C-alpha cells in the first residue's frame, strides 16, 4: 500500500464541538484539573473564603479575582524542571455583580476588596504522581495588590513633576498596580505584569481644575493640567470609580495619580522581599502584555500591544545585552533602551519608529520637554510619528525557534470602509486577525521587518465575514477574537479568545483555546481544544518546558454576554448567576480559576 500522506497539521488531538453551556470542555484524552480559585487562601493561616463576609484584609491573603496572564518559572531557576516551579498569575479586574451579595449598594469596603483583588499571585507548585499541587506555606508565596503593595517607579519618568503626588512628593513610590492583563517572564526569571485599562478606575472631571495639591491649579486656564494627556487615554472613565471612595483615584483631588499607572511592572518572584518596579522606559499605554526574546546580539527585545481600537504596536530594545550568568546584572536592564512604534506599509514592510525626545516632532513645540514627557504621553508621541492604528493589539509572541512574531488583533467594530489598510483589511472587524512578523536575518532590533496576515478570524462559511483560513479547517476549528497566545515547546501556536459580550455574533460559541498550524502546507488550519463556561473568557495559556502541562486561566465565568445564553435571558447576579462554575455549590458564586491540562497518557499536549 502507498504510505499514508503526511498530516497537514502537527496537532493530532480530536476537536471538541463549538457551543456554550455552564462548564468547561477539553479534547478527549485530556484532563482539566482545578489548581486554584478566587478566594482560596494562599497561606495556611489565611482566612477561608466566605463570599458573604468578604474583607479586603482577607482578600489580600487569598487568590485574587479574574486570573489572566500565567507565567511558569522552573525551579531551580535556569533549569527545565517541568514538575516544580513558580506560577505567576495576574489578576486583571473585578466583576462586582457576581462577587458581592450587596453589589447594588456600592461601598468603600467593596472598593477596598476590589483593590485587593487586582494585582498578582505567586505560587510554588509541584507535580506529584501526575497531579499538580500548591506547596503550602512556601517562602515564595506572594500577593501583589492595588491596595497596599509598594512599587517603585524607575527609568526616565521616576521623580518627574508629573508623577509627584500628595502621598509621594518624590514621584518614585506608587501604591499598587491594577488591571494586570497579560505579561511575560524575562530570561533572568522576573515576572512582568502589564497594566492595561487603567483609565477605568479614575473619577473626576477634566474641565475642572485640579485640587489644592496641584501647584499648577492657579495657572488660570480653568481646565485640568493633564486634560490633553488624560483625554488621549480615556481618563477618567469612571467605570470602577474608585475615586468615589479613594481620593487618589479622583483626578481633581490628585491630578497626577493617573500618570503612575499604565506601565510594565517587573517583579522578582524569587525574592518576595524585593519591591516590584514600574519600568517607565517601556512607555505608558494600555499594555496588553510584554513578551520578549533575546536578540542575536544579546539585547532583550520586548513586544507590547496597546489594546484599544485604533491603537498601536510597540517594541522596546534594551541598550545593554542580557547577562546570562550574573542575574543581578540584569536588575535594571529595562530602565534603558529604545521604545519604538510600528508603521505597517501596503508593500508588506513594517517600520519601527523610535520614540526619542527631540526627534520626529517630539519637541517642546509639541509639548514634549524631555523623554519623561514622551513616555508619559506615549500615545500622543506615537500619533506624531505616524504609527498605524490597529484593530486592538493584544498578545504579541515571538517564537524562539523561528524568530517570527505573532500578533493577535482581537477586533475593531468601529473601523469604517474608508479606514481599512493592508494590515487591518476589514471594516467592522468583529472577529480579529493574526499578523506574522518576520525580522530580517532574525534581527529583532532591525529598523524594518516584513509582515503577513496569517488568518482572518471568523466563520469561513459566512461570505459576509470574509474570513481567511486553510480550507481544511473544520466547523469547530475557526475562532473569533484572538487575545492571548502561547507557543508550545515543539513550536505549536495556541490561541485563547475573548469575544466579550459579542460572542453570540462573533462565533455563536463560548471562548476557548485553539491550536493553529503556522508552517507547511497546512498553514492556517485551526483546531478547537478547549472551551470555557458561559460568560467566561480564556486567558493565560502557559506550557511547562516539557509541553506536558498547560495552565489555563478561566476569567469571569458567568458574566460577559449571559443575556444571549439560551434559556438565560437575564443578567448574572451573585444570587442568580448564569453558572456557579467551578464549584456548582449553591452557596458559592462563580469563581475565576486556574486549570491545569495534562494528557491522560502523560504525553506532550496537542500531538
Ligand atoms: Fe485585558 Fe486586552 O485584554
Ligand atoms: Ca488580554
Ligand atoms: Ca502569551
Ligand atoms: Ca481579555
Number of helices: 7
Can you summarize the main beta sheet?
A: 9 strands, antiparallel
Percent of residues in helical segments?
Answer: under 10%
Query: Could you give the count of β-strands?
Result: 31
Shape: globular
CATH C-level:
Mainly Beta
CATH superfamily: TolB, C-terminal domain
Mean pLDDT: 96
Strand content: 25-35%
Q: From the alpha-carbon coordinates, what is the Rg to the nearest angstrom?
A: 23 Å
CATH topology description = Neuraminidase
Structural class label? mainly beta
- Provide the domain count: 1
Poorly predicted sequence stretches spanning 5 or more consecutive residues: none
Strand order of the largest sheet: 14-15-17-18-19-24-23-22-21
Query: What is the name of the CATH architecture?
Result: 6 Propeller
- Terminus-to-terminus distance: 25 Å
Bound molecules: MU-OXO-diiron, calcium ion
Pfam family, one: PhoX
Region (Disordered): 204-229
Biased composition (Basic and acidic residues): 215-229
Protein name: dTDP-glucose 4,6-dehydratase
Question: Which features characterize this protein?
Answer:
607 residues; Neuraminidase; 31 strands; binds MU-OXO-diiron; binds calcium ion
Write the layout of secondary structure elements.
Elements: E1 25-26, E2 30-37, H1 56-59, E3 67-74, E4 84-91, H2 96-99, H3 108-117, E5 119-128, E6 131-134, E7 142-144, E8 150-154, E9 173-175, E10 180-185, E11 191-195, H4 227-233, E12 264-267, E13 277-279, E14 291-294, E15 299-305, E16 309-311, E17 313-321, E18 337-344, E19 349-354, H5 371-376, H6 378-385, E20 390-391, E21 393-398, E22 405-409, E23 433-438, E24 448-456, E25 482-487, E26 493-497, H7 503-506, E27 512-516, E28 526-531, E29 537-543, E30 550-555, E31 593-599
Parallel strand pairs: 8-13
Antiparallel strand pairs: 1-28, 2-31, 3-4, 4-5, 5-6, 5-7, 8-9, 10-11, 11-12, 12-13, 14-15, 15-17, 16-20, 17-18, 18-19, 19-24, 21-22, 22-23, 23-24, 25-26, 26-27, 27-28, 29-30, 30-31
The structure holds MU-OXO-diiron (FEO) and calcium ion (3 copies).
One calcium ion is lined by residues 182, 291, 395, 397, 484-486.
Amino acid at each position: 500500500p502507498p504510505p499514508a500522506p503526511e498530516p497537514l497539521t502537527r496537532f493530532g488531538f480530536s476537536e471538541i464541538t463549538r457551543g456554550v453551556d455552564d462548564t468547561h470542555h477539553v479534547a478527549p484524552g485530556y484532563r482539566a484539573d482545578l489548581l486554584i480559585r478566587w478566594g482560596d487562601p494562599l497561606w495556611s493561616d489565611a482566612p477561608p473564603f466566605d463570599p458573604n463576609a468578604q474583607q479586603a484584609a482577607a482578600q489580600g491573603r487569598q487568590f485574587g479575582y479574574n486570573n489572566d496572564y500565567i507565567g511558569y518559572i522552573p525551579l531551580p531557576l535556569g533549569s527545565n524542571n517541568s514538575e516544580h516551579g513558580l506560577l505567576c498569575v495576574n489578576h486583571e479586574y473585578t466583576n462586582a455583580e457576581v462577587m458581592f451579595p450587596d453589589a447594588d449598594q456600592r461601598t468603600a469596603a467593596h472598593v477596598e476588596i476590589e483593590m485587593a483583588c487586582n494585582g498578582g499571585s505567586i505560587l510554588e507548585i509541584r507535580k506529584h504522581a501526575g497531579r499538580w499541587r500548591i506547596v503550602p506555606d512556601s517562602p515564595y508565596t506572594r500577593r501583589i495588590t492595588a491596595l497596599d503593595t509598594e512599587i517603585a517607579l524607575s527609568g526616565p519618568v521616576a521623580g518627574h513633576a508629573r508623577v509627584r503626588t500628595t502621598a509621594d512628593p518624590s514621584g518614585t513610590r506608587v501604591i499598587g498596580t491594577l488591571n494586570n492583563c497579560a505579561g511575560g517572564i524575562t530570561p533572568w526569571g522576573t515576572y512582568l505584569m502589564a497594566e492595561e485599562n487603567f483609565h477605568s478606575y479614575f473619577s473626576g472631571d477634566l474641565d475642572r481644575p485640579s485640587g489644592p495639591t496641584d501647584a499648577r491649579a492657579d495657572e488660570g486656564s480653568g481646565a485640568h493640567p493633564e486634560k490633553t494627556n488624560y483625554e488621549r487615554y480615556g481618563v477618567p472613565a469612571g467605570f470602577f470609580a474608585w475615586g468615589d471612595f479613594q481620593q487618589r483615584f479622583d483626578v481633581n483631588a490628585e491630578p497626577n495619580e493617573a500618570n503612575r499607572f499604565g506601565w510594565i511592572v517587573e517583579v522578582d518572584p524569587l525574592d518576595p522581599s524585593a519591591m516590584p518596579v514600574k519600568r517607565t522606559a517601556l512607555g505608558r499605554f494600555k499594555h496588553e502584555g510584554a513578551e520578549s526574546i533575546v536578540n542575536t546580539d544579546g539585547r532583550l527585545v520586548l513586544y507590547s500591544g496597546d489594546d484599544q481600537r485604533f491603537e498601536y504596536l510597540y517594541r522596546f530594545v534594551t541598550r545593554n545585552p542580557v547577562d546570562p550568568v550574573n542575574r543581578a546584572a540584569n536588575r535594571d536592564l529595562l530602565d534603558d533602551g529604545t521604545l519604538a512604534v510600528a508603521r505597517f506599509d501596503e508593500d508588506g514592510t513594517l517600520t519601527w519608529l523610535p520614540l526619542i525626545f527631540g526627534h520626529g516632532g517630539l519637541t517642546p513645540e509639541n509639548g514634549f520637554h524631555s523623554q519623561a514627557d514622551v513616555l508619559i504621553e506615549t500615545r500622543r508621541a506615537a500619533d506624531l510619528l505616524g504609527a498605524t492604528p490597529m484593530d486592538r493589539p493584544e498578545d504579541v509572541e515571538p517564537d524562539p525557534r523561528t524568530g517570527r512574531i505573532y500578533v493577535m488583533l482581537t477586533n475593531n467594530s468601529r473601523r469604517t470602509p474608508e479606514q481599512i489598510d493592508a494590515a487591518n483589511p476589514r471594516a467592522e472587524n468583529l472577529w480579529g486577525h493574526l499578523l506574522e512578523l518576520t525580522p530580517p536575518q532574525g534581527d529583532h532590533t532591525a529598523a524594518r521587518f516584513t509582515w503577513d496576515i496569517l488568518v482572518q478570524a471568523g466563520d469561513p462559511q459566512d461570505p459576509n465575514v470574509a474570513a481567511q483560513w486553510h480550507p481544511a479547517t473544520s466547523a469547530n476549528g475557526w475562532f473569533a477574537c484572538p487575545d492571548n497566545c502561547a507557543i508550545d515547546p515543539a513550536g505549536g501556536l495556541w490561541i485563547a479568545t475573548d469575544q466579550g459580550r459579542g460572542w453570540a455574533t462573533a462565533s455563536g460559541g463560548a471562548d476557548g483555546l485553539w491550536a493553529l498550524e503556522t508552517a507547511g502546507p497546512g498553514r492556517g488550519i485551526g483546531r478547537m481544544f478547549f472551551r470555557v463556561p458561559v460568560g467566561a473568557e480564556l486567558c493565560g495559556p502557559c506550557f511547562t518546558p516539557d509541553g506536558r502541562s498547560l495552565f489555563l486561566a478561566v476569567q469571569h465565568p458567568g458574566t460577559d454576554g449571559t443575556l444571549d445564553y439560551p434559556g438565560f435571558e437575564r443578567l448574572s447576579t451573585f444570587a442568580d448567576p448564569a453558572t456557579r462554575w467551578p464549584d456548582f455549590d449553591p452557596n458559592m458564586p462563580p469563581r475565576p480559576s486556574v486549570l491545569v491540562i495534562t494528557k491522560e497518557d502523560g504525553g506532550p499536549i496537542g500531538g
